Task: inverse folding
């Protein structure tokens, strides 16, 4: 599947500094205190574990609409002109079954549960050994090509440890209908505060059946302060009803396996509450530019306190050093070609390149500092 890179190395250098990311107030990895209900764990079991097969497990269709950075007032910012997408089908129900079985498997529940001031129940860093299907799906060239085609730039998954961040919200509280007929709920677990992401792009996929759910939009704050709402990953227009005729108002259905793509590092956003439904489980997988020559402002603010820090730091430094390796190799190659062709040395260009690499190394250095180990019980 072709995907396009809109950004040249030249125009990204003039961009604004990246938005500041505020992390959770949690300072070290913490396990959740509230347990996932046993019936949800039991219900996720599968009879036969399958290997990820792009032919059988993907059902990608391009989104019906893609919002641009320009539309939200952020023209020229970020690494792609794409801000966010409408929900689109990505995984088949069979794939979601396999993913759910891994999320709620014994080794994952034992090793990968985290809680923070942002979200009560998360599962992160499942790794290939514990979650081969999920890992192979997100690191496959097929999924990368699909996400890239929506994002308007060639992307690759951030690094293995970030496959994936799973937000789990269990709503055991009864939904209340107030006297004015409005639906109310005391459950606030599915809402997040305004924030920027730590990684350039995310693909958010719904792994719950949300047929009884209302809400769950993503709000985006524009530079003028206006708040725009876009549909969340579970909210898909029911095209079959639309096709029934103009007199039938199209409604929203909530489906498993649908996804949205968003340039969250450069958009101030928050997930709005959803009401109804027993559970809301979404899987957030971050992506970065595939080309090492494109600006990369990924940081660890959002991940540090909700990770096995050793595995997180390994993943981050490994990909950063690889990017640097590639950049140095490319620069050396172009410099040798310059010399062969007897053009004069470009002092300014070399200084700018070196400055960029110093800044890249400085960011990497400042992201790596000791973190306390979690209290294991
Ligand atoms: Fe976010």
Result:
């Amino acid at each position: 599947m072709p995907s396009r890179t809109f950004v040249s190395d030249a125009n990204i250098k003039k961009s604004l500094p990246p938005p500041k990311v505020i992390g959770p107030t949690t300072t070290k990895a913490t396990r959740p205190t509230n347990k996932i209900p046993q019936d949800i764990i039991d219900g996720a079991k599968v009879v036969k574990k399958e290997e990820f097969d792009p032919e059988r497990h993907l059902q990608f269709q391009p989104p019906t609409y893609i919002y641009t950075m320009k539309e939200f007032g952020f023209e020229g910012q970020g690494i792609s002109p794409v801000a966010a997408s409408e929900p689109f089908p990505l995984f088949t129900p069979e794939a979601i079954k396999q993913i759910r079985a891994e999320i709620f498997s014994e080794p994952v529940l034992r090793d990968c549960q985290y809680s923070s001031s942002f979200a009560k129940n998360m599962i992160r860093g499942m790794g290939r050994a514990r979650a081969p299907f999920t890992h192979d799906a997100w690191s496959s060239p097929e999924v990368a090509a699909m996400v890239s085609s929506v994002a308007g730039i060639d992307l690759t998954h951030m690094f293995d440890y970030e496959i994936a961040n799973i937000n789990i919200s269990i709503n055991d509280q009864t939904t209340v209908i107030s006297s004015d007929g409005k639906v109310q709920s005391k459950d606030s677990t599915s809402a997040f505060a305004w924030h920027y992401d730590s990684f350039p792009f995310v693909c958010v996929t719904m792994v719950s059946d949300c047929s009884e759910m209302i809400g769950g939009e993503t709000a985006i704050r524009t530079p003028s302060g206006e708040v725009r709402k876009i549909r969340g990953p579970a909210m898909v227009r029911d095209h079959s009803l639309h096709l029934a005729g103009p007199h039938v108002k199209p409604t929203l259905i909530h489906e498993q396996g649908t996804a949205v793509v968003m340039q969250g590092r450069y958009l101030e956003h928050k997930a709005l509450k959803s009401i109804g439904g027993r559970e809301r489980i979404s899987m957030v997988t971050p992506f970065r530019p595939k080309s090492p020559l494109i600006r990369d402002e990924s940081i660890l603010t959002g991940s540090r306190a909700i990770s096995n820090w050793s595995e997180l730091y390994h993943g981050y430094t490994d990909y950063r050093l690889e990017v640097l390796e590639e950049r140095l190799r490319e620069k050396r190659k172009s410099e040798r070609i310059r010399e062969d062709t007897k053009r004069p040395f470009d002092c300014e260009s070399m200084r700018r390149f070196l400055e960029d690499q110093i800044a890249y190394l400085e960011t990497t250095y400042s992201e790596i500092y000791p973190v306390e180990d979690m209290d294991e019980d």
